[in-house]
Each structure stands twice: as C-alpha cells, then as structure tokens.
Design brief:
Blueprint: H1 2-18, E1 24-26, E2 33-35, H2 36-52, E3 57-60, E4 73-81, H3 83-88, E5 94-101, E6 104-112, E7 117-122, E8 127-129, E9 132-133, E10 145-148, H4 158-169, E11 174-176, H5 181-189, E12 195-201, H6 203-215, E13 219-221, E14 234-239, H7 244-254
The structure holds D-MYO-inositol-1-phosphate and calcium ion (2 copies).
Length: 256
C-alpha cells in the first residue's frame, strides 16, 4: 500500500514538472488561487487511489467539503501544496496524500518533485526521507530557524501572526517563509528547520505531514496546544521536542 501511494505521488509530481502553462482562477480571500493543473492532478490521484482502495472516501482541496470525516479509511489530498509558488515558477511545491483511519492519520506521503524529496511515514513505523530515517531536531528555540505561514487569504489573522512572529524572532536564530505548509512541516521533521506555525490551515495542508513529524519525534498541535482538527482545519504549531513548549508559551502569553 505505502509503495503504491508513493508511486501515485511521484506520478502526480511529474505533472508539476512537465507543466509550464497554467490557467489560474481566483478563490475566496487574498492570494488564494487554483490552476487547471491542481484540478488535473487531484483527478489523477483520486482515480489511482480509487483503484487501489475502492472502499475509501476522499477529502481534497479542489472539491472541498467539510462533512464529517467518515469512519474507516479516508484519503486527504492536496494535489499541489504551494500553488502560488507553482504559478510563479518558484519551484517549491509538493503533492500531499494522507490517509486517516477513523479520523486519525495512519499514513502520509509528501513529494516535492523539484528536489526529488520524498517524505513518508506509517503510524508506528517511523518517518523517512528518500529511504533515510528522519529525526526532528532537539535544539531549543534559541538555536532554531523558524518557518511560518501568513494565512494570507484571511487578513483578520495578520496581526496575531506578526505579533507571535516578533515574539519568536526575539528568541530564535532567524525566520523563513516558504509557501508550502506541507513541506514546512516535513522540514521540521527532517531538522532542516525547527519550528513552523500558521494561524489557519486546512486538513489537506497538514494531514500527511503531521504524521511524518510525529513519527520523526516532533510535536504538532494547534497553536493553543489542542489536538489538530482533521475535520475543519485550524491553527498549526509544529516543532522539535525541545522548542515546542517555548513557542506554545509565547503564543499563550500573546492572548493574555
Ligand atoms: C497554501 C500553502 C501555504 C500556506 C497557505 C496554504 P495551497 O496551500 O500551504 O504555505 O501559507 O495557508 O493555503 O493553497 O498552496 O495549497
Ligand atoms: Ca495547501
Ligand atoms: Ca493546494
């Protein structure tokens, strides 16, 4: 099953590499776009997963419905995470396929075709990058580079985002913003960076990567410390085990 899902993510990733002309449509909010390629890739992934696992249900960004996550197997798919990067030729986007079993992540595959970076995990079996085991960094915040997303389509979150960012920056080494939340979380899992946060994401942004990070020994919750919401989406704080608590406390102090 894992190898077949990896092959599907890689086949989808090749479409990103081979596509140069896209037609872009605006969605709700600032900077929220979909291309004909997002839709094509999602259709391909659905068709392949349906062949592989006919009984499973699907949640995907390009036909998003916030129904209850059904019991049993449910694939959660972001055909292109990093659409803005993809449109601009920034070459930092990925395909993300998560599998929930009764609402909890059981398998995750995130594939960046530009770097040929394949991140994957199965519950209880560890996390891997291109076949090598992953371990999140054990550095404290003072030795950390921190990734963040702005939820740019929801400007009501801007002030909060930049207040937390300022509080973190004062204690960390430096900041980065990449435009792909799924890759950001995988970068925390692989200790390329040590913290990621964003005040609103959707389940397809983090379903697969959350399991990869947990299996790599990292922590991932909402920014208030609550478990992730795989139904409605919500905030995300992802970090190595020794920086997570410090950022959580900074975020809690902001809301006092
Ligand atoms: C977006 C990316 C981005 C994050 C946005 C997401 P999309 O997903 O993950 O990094 O900041 O909040 O919506 O639209 O490129 O699939
Ligand atoms: Ca996304
Ligand atoms: Ca997307």
């Amino acid at each position: 099953m894992l190898n077949k899902i990896i092959a599907i993510a890689q086949e989808a990733g090749r479409i990103l590499l081979d596509t140069s002309q896209v037609s872009v449509t605006a969605k709700d909010g600032v900077g929220n776009f979909v291309t004909d390629c997002d839709v094509r890739v999602q259709k391909l992934i659905y068709a392949r997963l349906r062949e592989l696992c006919p009984g499973a249900s699907f949640i995907g960004e390009e036909d998003a419905r916030h129904d209850a996550v059904p019991a049993g197997a449910c694939f959660v798919v972001d055909p292109i995470d990093g659409t803005q990067n993809f449109i601009n030729g920034y070459r930092h986007s990925c395909v993300s396929i998560g599998l929930l079993q009764d609402g909890s992540p059981k398998l995750g595959v995130v594939y960046d075709p530009y770097q040929d970076d394949l991140f994957y995990a199965q519950r209880g079996k560890g996390a891997f990058w291109n076949g090598h085991p992953l371990r999140a960094s054990e550095k404290p915040l003072s030795q950390s580079v921190v990734l963040f997303g702005t939820s740019s389509y929801d400007r009501a979150l801007t002030d909060l985002t930049f207040r937390l960012l300022r509080a973190i920056f004062d204690q960390a080494l430096d900041l980065r913003s990449s435009g792909s939340a799924a890759l950001d979380i995988c970068y925390v899992a692989s200790a390329r960076c040590n913290v990621f946060f964003e005040y609103h994401l959707e389940p397809w942004d983090y379903c697969a990567a959350a399991l990869i990070l947990e299996e790599a020994g990292g922590r991932i919750t909402q920014i208030g410390g609550q478990p992730l919401d795989f139904l409605q989406g919500g905030s995300v704080l992802a970090a190595g085990p020794y920086s997570y608590g410090t950022v959580l406390e900074l975020a809690q102090n902001l809301s006092k």
